Amino acid sequence: MPHEQYDTWSRDRRLAFLINAYNAFTVKLVTENYPLESIKEIGGVFGSPWTQAFIPLFGQTLTLNQIEHSMIREPGVFDESRIHFAVNCAAIGCPALRSEAYVASELDAQLQDSQRRFLIDRIRIRIRNRFDAAAGHFRVSKIFDWRADDFAKQSASLQAYLQRQATWLAAAEHLEQAQSTSDVEFLDYDWSLNQAH
Predict the structure, then answer these.
(1) Which of 31, 72, 73, 164: CA 20 to 30 A from 80?
(2) Is the whole-model pTM more than 0.90?
C-alpha cells in the first residue's frame, strides 16, 4: 500500500491499521519459527524478533520496532497510551490478543475494553495488575514501568494514571486507599509463549 493512501485516512483508521499490522506480523513471525518457548528465542544471540526487517509496508521492509516505536508511538501523532493494551508480543505477560481486528469506527471502545480487560485480568486474577492493600501499593505489569512516560502524557504521572484506574485494580473496600497511594511495584514479566496447550 502506498504511504500516500495511508496519509489520507482518519487518525483512528491509521492507528487501527498499524495495531493490526503489528499483531498480525507478530503472529506470522511466531508461527514461522514455531516450536519455541518464547518469542525472545527468535533472532539469535545478536538479534531480536523486534529488530528483524521482514514486514513489507509502504514500499519498505520494516521491523516490529519501527511499527511500534517509530509509527504508533511517534510523539505528537497518536499519543495514545492504551495501545499498550492492544499491541501483542505473543508472551503470557502481554495483554490478550483480541478475537477481532481493530476498526476505526470502534477503536475508542475497543481500546477502552482492552485496557479494562488487562487491568482486571480475569484469567490470571491476583497474579498481576492489582492494588495490594496490605502492602499499601499497586502491583502491576512491567509494561507500566517500560512505558511510564506514555501513561504520564495522559495522566500527569504513572501514579496518577493508576489512581484513576483504581476501580479496576482495587477491591471496593480499598478503593479510597488505592486512589491516594503513589507507591508502585512492578512485577516480573513472563516472556513464555502465549499458546494453547
Answers:
(1) 31
(2) yes
